[in-house]
Amino acid sequence: MIRYFLPIIVSVVFIADSLFVNFFANQSWFHQWILSPKLTLIVLLLATIYINPKKGIQYAFFFGLLYDIVYTDLLGVYMFGMPAICYIVSKLLKVLQTNVVIITILTIVGITLLEFYVYEINSMIGLTHMSMDRFLTYRLYPTLILNLVFVVLLAYPLKKQFEKVAYKLTD
Amino acid sequence: MPQFFFNKRLIVLLVSIIILVALIGFSLNGRKTITWPEQFVKDTVGLVQSTAHKPAQYVADFFGSIEDLKNTYEENKVLKKNLDKYMQLEADVKDLERKNKELNERLDKDSTLRDYDPINATVIARSPDRWNEAISIDRGKVHGVENDMAVMTSSGLIGRVVDASQFTSTVQLLSSQDRTNRASVTIQGSKNVNGLISGYDQKREALILTGIPHSAKIKEKQKVITSGYSGVFPQGRIVGEISDIESDNYGLTKTAYVKPAADFKDIQDVTVLKRVEPSPQKSLDEEEEK
């Protein structure tokens, strides 16, 4: 059962991302903030860290492609971005220790990188005309705070499960 | 130099970037329909999404009802005020509709730009990346949805279908920043004025309506409806009302800001409008085929 834990959990959060936007991030009390949940990326980064980088990057590629097809209609952006960020984080991990604080910061850095990367691509091809100033205040900071909450909530339970998966894989 | 080319990582990176650019180019290259593998993936994921969406909807509805209870008193006051006018309005509309039908019959016209078949649909997903404001609905080609059809909620126009798969379709909202996001509209007044919705101002939370002649007499609070002149949108569906008017840089045309009638943020049930009268482009295409 534990063998299938990773594909199941990534699929669940993949759907949960859109449910969250549909029901929660649109509420009027968030007003003009643009909250973008990055649950899929968070789980993929945690998988990269706790299971192994190869597995994380493979899943990131597959779910990045799925993300492009299902959500954005712009092929290639997440398919390339998600594995690249998993790769960068796995390299950073080699020079850093793996305690909870470092992991949380690394995940947030990963999300920031993805946001900037997608913002740059979208401005380049003219899909958005948001100014950098507006992007930072209304989009990036609220999104980071939201995702920080997700990381704090998810990191510990997922760590335990992923370590079990990693143990099973080494058998 | 040879050292440079044997670096495996560098080659992987370069190849990835080439593939990335090629894929973006492919998806932006004005393609009208998405490829069948994409449709297949969308339909499959859509099936899972609609299953997951239903229980979530119940939970959201429950909390929504609690929220509604708080405002009931205020709302009731306003509604009572409107109700008095409503009876007269309904009688007027019935009368006008009947008259209109009679006149059309006399002219031997069996369908106008106004007529449409509604296709009811439920939202099953919303793009979590929030760059392109798009929603997925649970009706597709099988149910008669086609590309470019207008999509409404009960309160007003929200967007158009950009990708119709077999069982699901993607709707681009009017609040999207994409430059292909256009709609031809009419400003209702003593004399109708035509214009083009050509974008969304995020700061004002209003649609940008351009191409209004400088001499046109328009004022705030005027209603904006679809004109039916472009593509496959039916005529006379409400878009919103004018909230602000500005002259453009050269003083040749005016730009109006339209406060949308529909709430783009909270969308759960929508209607796809299938116009009865075929679009001129389509009839041309069909004639060419003959």
UniProtKB/TrEMBL annotation, chain A:
<keyword id="KW-0812">Transmembrane</keyword>
<keyword id="KW-0133">Cell shape</keyword>
<dbReference type="Pfam" id="PF04093">
    <property type="entry name" value="MreD"/>
</dbReference>
<keyword id="KW-1133">Transmembrane helix</keyword>
<protein>
    <submittedName>
        <fullName>Rod shape-determining protein MreD</fullName>
    </submittedName>
</protein>
<comment type="similarity">
    <text>Belongs to the MreD family.</text>
</comment>
<dbReference type="GO" id="GO:0005886">
    <property type="term" value="C:plasma membrane"/>
</dbReference>
<keyword id="KW-0472">Membrane</keyword>
<dbReference type="GO" id="GO:0008360">
    <property type="term" value="P:regulation of cell shape"/>
</dbReference>
<keyword id="KW-1003">Cell membrane</keyword>
<dbReference type="InterPro" id="IPR007227">
    <property type="entry name" value="Cell_shape_determining_MreD"/>
</dbReference>
Automatic annotation (TrEMBL), chain B:
<dbReference type="InterPro" id="IPR042177">
    <property type="entry name" value="Cell/Rod_1"/>
</dbReference>
<dbReference type="InterPro" id="IPR055342">
    <property type="entry name" value="MreC_beta-barrel_core"/>
</dbReference>
<dbReference type="GO" id="GO:0005886">
    <property type="term" value="C:plasma membrane"/>
</dbReference>
<dbReference type="GO" id="GO:0008360">
    <property type="term" value="P:regulation of cell shape"/>
</dbReference>
<comment type="function">
    <text>Involved in formation and maintenance of cell shape.</text>
</comment>
<keyword id="KW-0175">Coiled coil</keyword>
<protein>
    <recommendedName>
        <fullName>Cell shape-determining protein MreC</fullName>
    </recommendedName>
</protein>
<comment type="similarity">
    <text>Belongs to the MreC family.</text>
</comment>
<keyword id="KW-0133">Cell shape</keyword>
<feature type="coiled-coil region">
    <location>
        <begin position="69"/>
        <end position="113"/>
    </location>
</feature>
<dbReference type="InterPro" id="IPR042175">
    <property type="entry name" value="Cell/Rod_MreC_2"/>
</dbReference>
<feature type="domain" description="Rod shape-determining protein MreC beta-barrel core">
    <location>
        <begin position="123"/>
        <end position="274"/>
    </location>
</feature>
<dbReference type="InterPro" id="IPR007221">
    <property type="entry name" value="MreC"/>
</dbReference>
<dbReference type="Pfam" id="PF04085">
    <property type="entry name" value="MreC"/>
</dbReference>
